[in-house]
Amino acid sequence: MGRPTLQQLLTYVSKVYGIGEKIKRAKDGRKDPQIMESTICCVMLLGFVWRMKSLNQLNQWLKYGRFKKLLPGVRLPRVDAVRESLSQYDLEPLQEMHDGIIHKAKRNKVFQQGTMNGWVVVGLDGVELFESKVKNCDECLTREKDGETHDFHRGVACMTVGSDPHVILGIDHMHPRDGEDKDEGEQTVGKRLIRNLYDTHRHFADVIVGDALYVNAPFINDVRAIGMDAVIRVKNKRLHLVQDALGLFQHREADEHWSIKDPEPKAKRKKQKQKHIHVEAWDEEGFEMGGVPQPVRFLRFRETITENKYRGKNVKRVETTKEVWVVTTLGKHVPAKHVWEMIHERWDVENNGFRELKTKWNIHHCFMHHPRAIEAILMFMMIAINLFHLFIFRRVKDFRKKGITQSFLVEELRIDAVLQDVPLYALLE
């Protein structure tokens, strides 16, 4: 495939994922609208594919012809009409669109080889959307900061971990609890999210990876109840499980060890020196954990990291050591190295995948502070991100090897909207 074009993207999402038919089902609560719901849906999805930063930017694109060739002969909205629609948007067709994409991706064997070492691994992480001292709504969470009340929105996201494409399986919102001092926590929402994903998609993953917040019996039991395994980092040394395991491990040598060479960025590479990680692993199963009927496995990893530290022209070789503790329901048929890779890849998604949502896709921006609009916008964003990633990783071959960034591909799609005749409705039939 040569240079990817907007026409190729639209044809792909229509032929493979049936997005055109799903767009026609878009609905909102406006009476006798002058702007069709399907038009609002098209504009929002394309806006997020183009990584719009605000509704004002979308209004500029509409005003100055960015959508003129895409929607010829169609009355285009202005930002007030978009806001009115979003505040009354019917979320059910959007949820069906998102669920359909995940179902089709599974049927198309996107995850057939797994995402890591043959397993489909997903990560859970809390994502703060935005915060304000001025605006609030009925669904805002609150916290005290520097003597002031801050209102914010937060959710929990579930994303595939390991190989590309990283697909967002779902995002659930934390809600305030009426009449109670504490709002919903990440654990509560995380458990609800995986149950909802299981109800919709059944076996959506083999392994669920979480941070130290999820080291508790109810979460592990919920994961086991849906036929999946958990890999969770542990930080609390006071847990009886941790004390028992560390006490056992201190009297014996590591069960296995391995080394990894991680090339440094080319701009900093001198004399071809590389970052070197040596990992020692202590691994034992059969530990009891309060509230968990079946025994669990505990792994202790000690990482010795040797790397270059640059200060001007001077290069110093520095060695640091850190420990990582992991509790998992996976048996010893899964090598310790694979468990270590799962927990590290989960950090990679947190640092790159979830961080990318904020830095590239602007998930942290408050496009519109209204409970229904916030949910609709997040759904539009999730659908657009998944479709974009599925397109570039399934249809645009070797773009990374050629040094092409995703930001460049997004810019190319924006340019195509202006330079090429791309009638959107014809492509989405």
Automatic annotation (TrEMBL):
Residues 166-387 form the Transposase IS4-like domain. One of its GO terms (molecular function) is DNA binding. The keyword Transmembrane applies. Pfam families: DDE_Tnp_1. One of its GO terms (biological process) is DNA transposition. InterPro entries: RNaseH-like_sf, Transposase_11. The keyword Endoplasmic reticulum does not apply. Keywords: Membrane, Transmembrane, Transmembrane helix. The chain crosses the membrane at residues 373-393. This is Transposase.
